[in-house]
Amino acid sequence: MKATSIEIKKRIVELREENGLKYKEIAFWLGVTHSVVKKVLLDHRKGVSLVPGKPGPKGQRTFSAELIEEIRDYVTQNKDATLEQIQGEFSHKVSCTIPTFHRLLARLGFRYNKNLACRRAR
């Protein structure tokens, strides 16, 4: 998604304050969405600068390469381990949620099937 230019943001504030136009009218005239107008005006009321700040640093990876290999070895040796058990095994090395482990294992090519007892009888 493209960032809204400073000129558009200034024009949104100007149209609202000087002309009293509604959000939908401003969005129509400037060719932006209603939600963009709403967000810009909300930020303006809060005193947030219209000029965007510097982008933040990229997040660090949750799992190091060594830890990924440890997890791969553990799952290969313990094929019946649940996500909760895997998370518990590595909780002292990494703090993350069960869905994060699930995404990692999917990326590594591991799949989990539903428990047969949970399936509906046909």
Describe this structure in words.
With 122 residues, the chain is mostly helical. It has helices spanning 6-19, 23-30, 34-46, 65-77, 83-89, 98-107. Helix 1 (6-19) packs across helix 3 (34-46) and helix 2 packs across helix 3. Mean pLDDT is 83; it is low at 116-122.
Supply database-style keywords.
single chain; 122 residues; mainly alpha; 6 helices; 53% helix
Indicate the topology.
Blueprint lengths: L5 H14 L3 H8 L3 H13 L18 H13 L5 H7 L8 H10 L15
The low-confidence parts are 116-122
- Assign the structural class, choosing from mainly alpha, mainly beta, alpha/beta, alpha+beta, or little secondary structure: mainly alpha
Q: Tell me the span between the first and last alpha carbons.
A: 46 Å
How many structural units, i.e. domains?
2
Order of helices and strands: HHHHHH
Number of strands: 0
Largest sheet: none
What portion of the residues fall into strands of 2 or more residues? under 5%
Helix content: 40-55%
**Structural Rg:** 25 Å
Number of contiguous helices:
6
Shape descriptor reads: elongated
Q: How would you state the average pLDDT, rounded? A: 83
